[in-house]
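Example A, followed by Example B.
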Amino acid sequence: MKSILLFFSLVVNILCVAQDSVVSGVTHPIYSTILKEERTYTISLPQSYYNKKYTPVNYPVFYVLDGEMSFDYMNSIVKFLSKGVYAHIPEMIIVAVHNTNRTRDLTPTKSSAKSPDDSTKILFEKSGGNENFTNFISKELISHIDSNYRTNTFKIIAGHSFGGLAVTNVLLHHPEMFNAYIIHDPSYWWDNEYTLKRIETNFT
């Protein structure tokens, strides 16, 4: 019986330590007058954010698209790389933006591709709204985050697939919005490689 109690005591202690070491995100709503809909974002604050042993400081902000899919692994990577005295990157506030209509918000142009099943129908009919979505981020979300959290002026944005396409579009047309851009596996096939052509023009 003593062995069983000792075992359960060790398990409980291990679980408590593991739980203390994980800073999970909190999801909040924000109404967008630009998009005319309620959006949500998940935010994760650095472990030192509320630590009274340290003088309060302001943090860089890392914005992540496809938040409902990408938050967990991005949050884990940032926490790992910013941990300890030999950290590779500074601690950051992570803001993961959730989707409502992913294709609409993350694509730069209106699709003209016809459905292979029915030539009278357009694939990705609700598309081409990335500029509007970018305005939501720049004029509403960023100011909301800056008003409610201790942020500094350094901002990063990351996107994958359609998100990578959207981040590239922001870099091409609004490079001053962020200090760093992380683009992985972008959907550059979109609209007959529209974005690749713009890259060649803009970066000549």
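Example B, a separate protein, is given below in the same form.
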Amino acid sequence: MNTIIYRNFGMGLFVFGMALSTFAGITIGDPKADTGAFTVSGTLRAKYNYKDYGHDVDLDNSVQFDAAIINLGYESPNVFANAQWRCYQWNDLCDFSTLVSAYAGYRLNETDNVTLGLQPVPFGPGRYWDSSFYAGLNYTMGLQDVLNLGLNYHAELPSATKVDLAYFVRDGGNYTGTADNDTARYSANIVKTDNPTMTSLKEKNMVVARVSQDLSFLNHDDLKMAVGGSYWYSQLDNKRNGEEGNRKAWSLFNTIHYQNFGLTLTGGQIEIDNKDPISSYSTFGSFDAEYNIANKGTFYSVDMNYTFKNVKDNLNVTPYIVLSGFNKEENGFQDSQRNIIGAAWNHKNISLYTEYVMSKNDVFIGGNTDSFAAGDDGKWKKLVNLMFMYSF
């Protein structure tokens, strides 16, 4: 129950999308033709971590290979598809590897489409809620950058309203890892476990809706604003007693872009009824680690960034600040926080992320399996995270 987890899982959230947008890989065909175009691209990553956790352990402050990523895409006037596989290294090459996405879509018109497969859950302001590489607490809580198996309908109305309605039959699945459990997965999902001090659950029949409204009456060439909200309801199979519980979550968000400045505010609540004698927390898993999360609480995320474009020879620099937290409703449970200050440096197909992470009661920053539930020692832990990326 008190096993310490010290693994930096290096998610590459916002980073990978930026890398692909700056270097398109190899494309065969024409996306405007009926036969479409196939694209193959990839990314190699290396990292350096300096961990200041305030206690005596093997912190592994070293430069090492982090991950290899392969992305396959297809684009035509009506049909599109994407698949992504990631191979990580904890000790040996590809000792943790996972399918991230695998979906196909059909365009109903210029704005509306339907997608089927392993794809992002439309919860919160977007797939990524902040500009950092390490990402805020909301990723570890299974709220942002979650990819599950299902169907999504996306529509854009003349009123500048964007709507997503989705149904997911199950989570993204378990793949190849070093741990003998259900945690070899990219997304942070509710998982099954044999540990009697943890819950053993399977999430299914997820219904998710998101609405985002552009505030066009405020918009002009330099200012873009939008507000929105999302809701998530799912069923939970308790694998120990056969009973059925549920998970409910909602979020409200606001995005502001003024010239090169961006601000995203997100807040919401999560409530889990796991139908288990352990009623105060539920067990989640991702990146070969399992951990407990309080069943009830409110979460928030604040992202501020500014991009200095073409500083020198096509070098773009984006400093950012990310504040995130989880305030738990259970009496005696300590709140969790993860704050990040950093900068992204992008030049053609090379990216460097430099960031300083400050956390308390955080599973992945010097904490333990109960950090997102009851908490740990409640002290601030620090991490310097440097991530180098080469895209091809």
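On Example B: Residues 49-58+108-386 form a domain with the Porin fold (CATH 2.40.160.10).
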